[in-house]
């Protein structure tokens, strides 16, 4: 869907590159959007942290501080949870609201975001480093679509009446769970916020959301829109802060009914433990991946090369579902490698506000160093460096698009999630072999196969232990289609109708009747 | 308080095909009257068989595989419906004024009830568009099987005059949401809001041919639609008599799918343990709403013996206090009946009530000379065999009957060919659940009446129709399920 969004937003361009945008279709951005909101958002009010502390948020293209942002800690989480609990009280405006009106509020929020597309895209690019052309034509439109999708579900999430044995009338109510803690990452700040708020609010929950310390700004602006369009106070509370303090406070809070976390598998373990140690709050997790992208010899070569490039390098390689193990069938390996290297070398790395840029900086110094560390390990462990391999600029956190060939399954770069512009290309012979190797990982988020053969496509997609399998495409997302991981990549599904399950408590009501009739 | 648009000029009077305005092939036009005054509002092009053919061609082309409409993202279909809702909101005053002038309904009712329901229905189905999901199915054998929920195709829709714009939305919204194309014939008495909607449909951005609006008469344009060999489905709301013709026409032509929303003679059962004043008020509005011109009208009020006299007395009082007059003026409760034919039919049934021995509590005749207004009328001591107890009156005439026991009233309530709606007033949980389970009606209201909402399915048992409108259930009526089974080399769970 990313690709479709691009091709429909922009005039048709010959050649299949996803990342060459016609400058005429996207407005020229301001590289210095004003920051209007940098405090905590609790009960529809802007507040300083109880501790009065703040932290800097950095522009990763330059390494410079954008501004200070109030830093939430446990005391602020307590305040937010109180507000969310009050807003969820039986009889409150939010609980009494028509479901269709919850939907209308989500729709209005989508409209307001759409209205402010250009500004939000500027702010997102400033704080995260992703190219403005992508923020504008992919991230923000997908946010709008996600919110509109869930707006539509609000009054359609139906319980059942059930023919049980005995003289009883039995039905289920699909109730909201209650106060939901939501902890979101920095790689798609706006979009992750929408993926979390959409289903939670459609089903009638209230929310305490901690946004990533690297990228708090766009979420706080959206908070102002949440108030503008009319959500009652306390329904959504947004706290910028650190994981070990604010995030941990949410995960262990005794009065938070559910926590949804998107981020690293390492922190996912902590969240699950925190739930077990506190009040057994419901947990859903969207974690890391090391997704296999399998290219069969009968694939359309040009498409496969381009899609595989996109699958890895999109968003500076910072995607949980990045196709970071590209398995190429031996008979086409050389040609695939040559074309992939050529494509990687032509990738335009630079100022994210320049409309021609395809790749911006990594999000911060920590990630930057970590990725360079992985590149070193690749070289050390004997993978063949085909292009890139180092820093791309003097300031900011830019890394060259990098490809390793002759990668073996046991190498660190083949097993661990790099989260950067580093592509691993591996060789395979047979179908059965590649399915087994592809599944040989603790992760299971996504996978893809490129082939013309209907039978192979089906065999592989059935055999791969991954929550999303793409066939002859990659990174196709739609608000309508569920997304989530097998194994260590997480539990639960986001998006689609399935996304509603995680925000619902089912209550069965059984009433004695004098005489049951069918 | 919203006010009607003064000196409203009718803008759209032609036939709408392919996003263009057409004159009728025959050259004929239909007069459109204001039932409150008898004035001619305007003339509208009259569609007949040839116009229907043109519209079908257009709708069929818009439905072709590969067409913009067929290739559109489902979420974009939803977006178009939402845009249409936005435009209806923008033009709400105008539409409500037009509706009141054309149908005689109270302007404030049109504004607050009809138009609100129209907007909500469009938004509701806007939300369903990209949530219509097929399934993947674990069949036996080495197969991968899934279902596609496809649109049916070209849908003919015939709507009545009692809630013109709301019926228009109830019909097009689910049809378009599922990806169909539509030919809709509004009632000859009330084409004007439908034609304004056509203009908004074009403005919203629906591709040409997706919606075609053909004002015309039942026996000509309506019949042409029902018999057409290239219309895949017909949805009709109107009288049971015409519903039978539609069903026959479908069988006679191409076996097009048929859904029908027909008449009712709906029982409203009031037990002694109810809140009496509230029940009187609900029963009153349950009958007299929209000048009694509702398929849902609670036209047989069964009242438990011990509260019967009091109930009748209070009901008559309420009826006497109704204010009749110009529907555009605030403070008026009841407007005219839609036309002379309805007016005559209602008076005839009132006379039959008197002749067959019911007690006339109030009203019983026309309100004044040379108009279509009828006095709010209440009959008591009505017995089940009287015509006013059996036939749908569709006017401001309330029948109140006496009952003694639960089983008796259930049996009497069900003793009708109709089965659209029913009401039950009681505080007793057992009675409420028992009676609502036992009644043969598509909608049962407990301690309320006419409580409708877009999310909730609506439709009839028995001769009140078949199929359901509104809610998720309506989607089934506009969907063809295709099962696709692919041979694979090895099936795994």
TrEMBL record, chain A:
Keyword Oxidoreductase: yes
InterPro entries linked: Ald_DH/histidinol_DH (IPR016161), Ald_DH_C (IPR016163), Ald_DH_CS_CYS (IPR016160), Ald_DH_CS_GLU (IPR029510), Ald_DH_N (IPR016162), Aldehyde_DH_dom (IPR015590)
Keyword Oxidoreductase appears in the UniProt entry: yes
GO molecular function: aldehyde dehydrogenase (NAD+) activity
Keywords carried by this UniProt record: NAD, Oxidoreductase
Any Pfam family matching the protein: Aldedh
Active site per UniProt: 286
Top EC group: oxidoreductase
The EC number(s) this enzyme carries: 1.2.1.3
UniProt cross-references to CDD domains, sorted A to Z: ALDH_F1AB_F2_RALDH1 (cd07141)
Boundaries of every Aldehyde dehydrogenase domain copy: 46-509
Sequence similarity: Belongs to the aldehyde dehydrogenase family.
Protein name, UniProt field: aldehyde dehydrogenase (NAD(+))
Gene: LOC120031080
UniProtKB/TrEMBL annotation, chain B:
Domain Aldehyde dehydrogenase: 21-484
Active site: 261
Keywords: NAD, Oxidoreductase
EC nos: 1.2.1.3
Pfam families associated with the record: Aldedh (PF00171)
Name of the molecule in the record: aldehyde dehydrogenase (NAD(+))
Top-level taxon of origin: Eukaryota
Family statement drawn from the similarity comment of this UniProt entry: Belongs to the aldehyde dehydrogenase family.
Single GO term (MF): aldehyde dehydrogenase (NAD+) activity
């Amino acid at each position: 869907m990313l690709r479709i969004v691009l091709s429909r937003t922009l005039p048709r361009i010959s050649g299949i590159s996803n990342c060459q945008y016609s400058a005429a279709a996207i407005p020229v951005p301001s590289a210095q959007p004003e920051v209007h909101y940098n405090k905590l958002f609790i009960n529809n009010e802007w507040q300083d942290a109880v501790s009065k502390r703040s932290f800097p948020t950095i522009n990763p293209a330059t390494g410079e501080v954008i501004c200070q942002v109030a830093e939430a800690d446990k005391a602020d989480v307590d305040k937010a949870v109180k507000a969310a609990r009050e807003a969820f009280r039986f009889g409150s405006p939010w609980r009494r609201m028509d479901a269709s009106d919850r939907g209308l509020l989500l729709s209005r929020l989508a409209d307001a975001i759409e209205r402010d597309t250009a500004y939000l895209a500027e702010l997102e690019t400033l704080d995260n480093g992703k190219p403005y052309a992508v923020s504008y034509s992919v991230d923000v439109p997908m946010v709008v679509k996600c919110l509109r999708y869930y707006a539509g579900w609000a009054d359609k999430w139906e319980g059942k009446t059930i023919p049980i044995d005995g003289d009883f009338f039995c039905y289920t109510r699909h109730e909201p769970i209650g106060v939901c803690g939501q902890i979101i990452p920095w790689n798609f700040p706006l979009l992750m916020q929408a993926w979390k708020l959409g289903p939670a609010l459609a089903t009638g929950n209230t929310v305490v959301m901690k946004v990533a310390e690297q990228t708090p700004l766009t979420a706080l602006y959206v908070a102002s829109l949440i108030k503008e369009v009319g959500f009652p106070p306390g329904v959504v509370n947004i706290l910028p802060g650190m994981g070990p303090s604010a995030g941990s406070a949410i995960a262990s809070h005794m009065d938070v009914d559910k926590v949804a976390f998107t981020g690293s598998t390492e922190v996912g373990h902590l969240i699950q433990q925190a739930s077990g140690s506190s009040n057994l709050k419901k947990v859903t997790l969207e974690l890391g991946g090391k997704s296999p992208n399998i290219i069969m010899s009968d694939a359309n070569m040009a498409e496969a090369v381009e899609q595989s490039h996109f699958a890895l390098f999109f968003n500076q390689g910072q995607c949980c579902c990045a196709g970071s193990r590209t398995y190429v069938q031996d008979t086409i390996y050389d040609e695939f490698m040559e074309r992939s290297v050529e494509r990687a070398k032509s990738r335009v790395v630079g100022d994210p506000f320049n409309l021609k840029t395809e790749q911006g900086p990594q999000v911060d110094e920590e990630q930057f160093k970590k990725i360079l560390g992985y590149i070193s390990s690749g070289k050390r462990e004997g993978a063949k460096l085909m292009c890139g391999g180092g820093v791309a600029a003097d300031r900011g956190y830019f890394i060259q698009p990098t490809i390793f060939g002759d990668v073996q399954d046991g190498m660190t770069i083949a097993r661990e999630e790099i989260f950067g512009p580093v592509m691993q290309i591996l060789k395979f012979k047979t179908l059965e072999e590649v399915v087994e190797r592809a599944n040989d990982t603790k992760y299971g988020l996504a996978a893809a196969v490129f082939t013309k053969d209907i039978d192979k496509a089906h065999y592989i997609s059935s055999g791969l232990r991954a929550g999303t399998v793409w066939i002859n495409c990659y990174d196709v997302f739609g608000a309508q289609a569920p997304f989530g991981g097998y194994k260590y990549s997480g539990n639960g599904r986001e998006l689609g109708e399935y996304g509603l399950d995680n925000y619902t408590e089912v209550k069965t009501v059984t009433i004695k009747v004098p005489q049951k009739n069918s | 308080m919203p006010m009607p648009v003064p000196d409203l000029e009718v803008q759209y009077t032609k036939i709408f095909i392919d996003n263009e305005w057409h004159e009728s092939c025959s050259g004929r036009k239909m007069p459109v009257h204001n039932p409150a005054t008898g004035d001619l509002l305007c003339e509208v092009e009259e569609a007949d068989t040839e116009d229907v053919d043109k519209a079908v061609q257009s709708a069929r082309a818009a439905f072709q595989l590969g067409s913009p409409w067929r290739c559109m993202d489902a979420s974009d279909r939803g977006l178009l419906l939402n845009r249409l809702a936005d435009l209806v909101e923008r033009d709400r005053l105008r539409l409500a004024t037009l509706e009141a002038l054309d149908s005689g309904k109270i302007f404030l009712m049109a504004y607050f009830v009809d138009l609100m329901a129209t907007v909500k229905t469009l938004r509701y189905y806007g939300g369903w568009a990209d949530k219509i999901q097929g399934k993947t199915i674990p069949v036996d054998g080495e197969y991968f099987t899934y279902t596609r929920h496809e649109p049916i195709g070209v849908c003919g829709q015939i709507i009545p005059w009692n809630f013109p714009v709301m019926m228009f939305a109830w019909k097009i919204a689910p049809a378009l949401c599922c990806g169909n194309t539509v030919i809709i014939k509004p009632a000859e008495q009330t084409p004007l809001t439908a034609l304004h909607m056509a203009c908004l449909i074009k403005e919203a951005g629906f591709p040409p041919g997706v919606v075609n609006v053909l004002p015309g008469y039942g026996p000509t344009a309506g019949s042409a639609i029902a018999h057409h060999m290239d219309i895949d489905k017909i949805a009709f709301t109107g009288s049971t008599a015409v519903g039978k013709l539609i069903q026959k026409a479908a069988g006679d032509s191409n076996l097009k799918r048929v859904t029908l929303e027909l008449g009712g003679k709906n029982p409203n059962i009031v037990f002694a343990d109810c809140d009496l004043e509230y029940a009187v008020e609900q029963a009153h509005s349950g009958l007299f709403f929209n000048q009694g011109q509702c398929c849902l009208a609670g036209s047989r009020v069964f009242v438990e013996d011990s509260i019967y006299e009091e109930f009748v007395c209070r009901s008559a009082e309420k009826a006497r206090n109704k204010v009749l007059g110009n529907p555009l003026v605030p403070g008026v409760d009841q407007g005219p009946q839609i036309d002379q034919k309805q007016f005559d039919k209602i008076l005839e049934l009132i006379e039959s009530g008197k002749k067959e021995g019911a007690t006339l509590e109030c009203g019983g005749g026309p309100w004044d000379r040379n108009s279509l207004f009828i006095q709010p009328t209440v009959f008591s001591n009505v017995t089940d065999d009287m015509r006013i107890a059996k036939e749908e009156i569709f006017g401001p005439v309330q029948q109140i009957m006496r009952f003694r026991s639960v089983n008796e009233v259930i049996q009497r309530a069900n003793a009708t060919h109709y089965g659209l709606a029913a009401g039950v007033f009681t505080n007793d949980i057992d009675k409420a659940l028992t009676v609502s389970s036992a009644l043969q009606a598509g909608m049962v209201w407990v301690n309320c009446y006419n409580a409708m909402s877009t999310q909730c399915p609506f439709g009839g048992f028995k001769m009140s129709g078949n199929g359901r409108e509104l809610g998720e259930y309506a989607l089934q009526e506009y969907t063809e399920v295709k099962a696709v089974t692919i041979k694979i080399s090895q099936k795994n769970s």
